[in-house]
Amino acid sequence: MNKEFAVEFYFGVRPVKAFDLYVTAIFLSLAVSLISHYTKADKRDLWGIIDEIGKEYNIKVINKLIISVPELLSGRISREVDKAIEEYNSMVELKDPTVPNPTWIDEEEGETPLGGTLGYTYDFIEKENDDEQR
């Protein structure tokens, strides 16, 4: 009693067939070109919509296509980074930095006939009150 079992096991994501990838790429690029031509929409925005649909519904062919094309991958990365920055900014309240008032420098005597140094300087070290030092 010899039984043979045909079981295919894949670690991670199941591979996408090259034929399916090429057919999908052809039809999607044709659709993007037609929609862009007739609606004057930006092709990068249309590919971004396709990418979001592929991620939302876990369409492996679209994900593989986006990862395979460097321009589409860089668009995905920039959208993900922008989304992460917006999410971070919504969670954290950022305070505006406070810049100390400048101190004017005007030396009347100096190396030149007009005098010495002119300009502003800043003290970035906060000075503590005498009560706080004790």
Structure description:
The chain is mostly helical and 134 residues long. The chain has a domain of 74 residues. It is built from 5 helices and 2 strands. Strands 1-2 form a two-stranded antiparallel ribbon. The chain is elongated and about 105 Å long.
Biggest sheet features: 2 strands, antiparallel
Q: Segments where pLDDT lies below 50 for 5+ residues?
A: none
Structural class: mainly alpha
Distance N to C terminus: 92 Å
Order the strands across the largest sheet as they lie in space.
1-2
- Return the average pLDDT rounded to an integer: 85
Figure out the total of helices.
5
Q: Give the overall shape.
A: elongated
Radius of gyration: 31 Å
Beta-strand segment tally: 2
List keywords for this structure.
single chain, 134 residues, mainly alpha, two-stranded antiparallel ribbon
Quick summary:
Helices cover 53% and strands 6% of the residues. Helix 1 crosses helix 3, helix 2 packs across helix 3 and helix 2 crosses helix 4. The chain starts with 17 loop residues before the first helix and ends with a helix.
Describe the secondary structure blueprint for this structure.
Blueprint: H1 18-39, H2 43-56, H3 60-68, H4 70-91, E1 103-106, E2 118-121, H5 130-133
Antiparallel strand pairs: 1-2
Helix pairs in contact: 1-3, 2-3, 2-4, 3-4
